Amino acid sequence: MTEHAANQPTSGRASSLYTLLVSVSILLVLIVVILSAYLRLSGSGLGCADWPSCYALIKAETSGTESLAAAHLVPPWATATHRLVASALGMLVLGIAVTAWRRRREPGQSVLIPLAVLGLTVFLSILGYKTPSPLLPWVTLSNLLGGMAMLAMLWWLGQRSVSTKTENIQRHELRPWALIGIFIVFFQIALGGWVSANFAALACTDLPGCGGYPWSDGPWRESFNLSRVLPATDAGAVITGDAGKIIHLVHRAGAVLTFLYMAWLGWRAIGSGSRYRGTGITILVFLALQILLGISAVAFSLPLALVTAHNAIATLLLLSIVNLNHLLTPR
Fold first, then answer.
1. What are phi and psi of 238, to 5 degrees?
2. Cα separations in angstroms, 51 against 44, 192, 287
3. Is the C-alpha dihedral spanning 316, 320, 321, 325 positive or negative?
4. DSSP state of 208
5. Can you tell me the distance from the alpha carbon of 171 to that of 160, in angstroms, rounded to the nearest whole number?
6. Cα separation, 113 vs 150, whole angstroms
7. With contact defined as beta carbons under 8 Å apart, do 326 and 166 qualify?
8. pLDDT digits over 27-60, tens only?
9. Chain segment 161-209, per-residue pLDDT in tens
């Protein structure tokens, strides 16, 4: 028996282990992302009995730091589950990085992406333990985008590890447009996260505008200053002001642009052949659900279930566009 033949069973076991680790990690990070959204939203006051007066309240702790006053409304099971799943995810991501490094000489094995996922995991872990005041929006935004980026990269690794049909696929004219789609969806998710981080969900309660707010006279630089500190009253309520209105309106404008682009991209994918038809339909379905949930959330005064579902569907829309890029990308 040759050395090459003897190494084949070992390589096959390593490949199966790698695929298993990635698949389980995808499920766990999806749970973490959705639970994080639920914890963040419920902690900010959504769904509380005194709605909306309980929204965006900050209280001083004995240690001198600030925390969300409504955080006590978060069910203990949600916090415990989030910590348990996040810990298990960290171990799996480490296993993925080690396995990918050991298989780095095999054709098609990515090492950079597993190491990037590991780096993000370490960063988010440190951020979770050293989370400053909720008056710093960049913390919330970093947690959200870090989780979304981890999920997108793990989904890519999972699709590449189990697929064998992309090796002979020719470069498709839709590929650069699909890549742009990833950035558009990710940017729109960032805008939504910025709304949440700045407690701007109630800044505009009517549709489609914001009470005739004059865009040209608003504090644009302050609204999108990543290092800004949120002002609060002596009673502990966050002051959103005109900056919150601008942030909310820009998120709505981004939703319109995202809908138009992704609807066109999904339709193009459907017309590009049977290989891309299922993903194209999935994009259109998630896109329609996302718009419907966003409008319903505003119309029904931000019920916790609808807003959490809005976050979850945004995650699935991101995965669908990543999947389209996978199908369009030759090995």
1. -70, 135
2. 11, 21, 29
3. positive
4. S
5. 16
6. 9
7. yes
8. 999 999 999 899 888 878 887 777 777 788 877 6
9. 876 554 555 667 899 999 999 999 999 999 999 999 999 888 887 777 7
